[in-house]
Amino acid sequence: MTCRAKQRHDGIIGLDNTQIATGSGRHSASMDRFSTDNLTAERLNESHLADLVALHLDPEASRYIGGVRSAEATEKYLVANMAHWDQHGFGLWTLRTKDGAFAGRAGIRHILVDDVDEIEIAYAFTRNLWGRGFASEIATALTQIGLSQLELPSLIGIVYVANGASRRVLEKSNYLLERSTNRHGEDVVIYRIRR
Ligand SMILES: CC(C)(COP(=O)(O)OP(=O)(O)OC[C@H]1O[C@@H](n2cnc3c(N)ncnc32)[C@H](O)[C@@H]1OP(=O)(O)O)[C@@H](O)C(=O)NCCC(=O)NCCS
């Protein structure tokens, strides 16, 4: 896949390993890595397993993303999401704060919703970092990558009805509420943004 760097209006990313000028300076990035004002993103790899296991073992962080996962389940998750990168050229990134601390994971990935192949944005942060605007920052970046760089026709966000913070993040990122459905026994809402 070829992804061209573009002049950014929000100072977030560039692709293609190019140096691009943005509102907040020059950034070097590729699909494997990008950075936002407060976060760096690295394509998911085996070295991220321990951090992901810890994130997925936190009941609060996991509450609206399918519940606590065992280390074995997270290992399978990592393998599946690395395969997603190999197959599609995009997927999940591990996020770090600028001082290098693990912050969470986020990405763009295929998902089957009511038998339709959709592409969602997803994000989850360690609890100590909630409430600092990081999810909004990364949702904006993912949306820019998905719509402008990957030229996807639309992106969705699937959120448990009760997950007010994530719903707010999508609304702030200009996603529109499309419909409700039930997924794995949970009531969820689907938001969408179109290119
Ligand atoms: C949901 C989550 C990603 C939000 O991350 P965050 O970095 O705290 O989000 P932000 O700070 O960017 O924005 C949160 C917004 O929701 C608002 N908010 C927080 N709790 C809320 C609630 N219960 N109901 C409604 N809005 C809420 C905040 O005030 C903020 O809006 P504002 O900027 O207008 O004030 C984070 O809590 C998380 O990682 N949760 C666990 C994983 C998860 O649920 N992921 C999403 C799956 S769809």
TrEMBL record:
The entry's keywords: Transferase
Species for this entry: Bradyrhizobium shewense
Protein name, UniProt field: Protein N-acetyltransferase, RimJ/RimL family
Domain N-acetyltransferase: 39-173
Keyword Transferase: yes
Keyword Kinase: no
GO terms assigned for molecular function: acyltransferase activity, transferring groups other than amino-acyl groups
InterPro entries found in the cross-reference section: Acyl_CoA_acyltransferase, GNAT_dom, N-acetyltransferase
Pfam families given in the database record: Acetyltransf_3
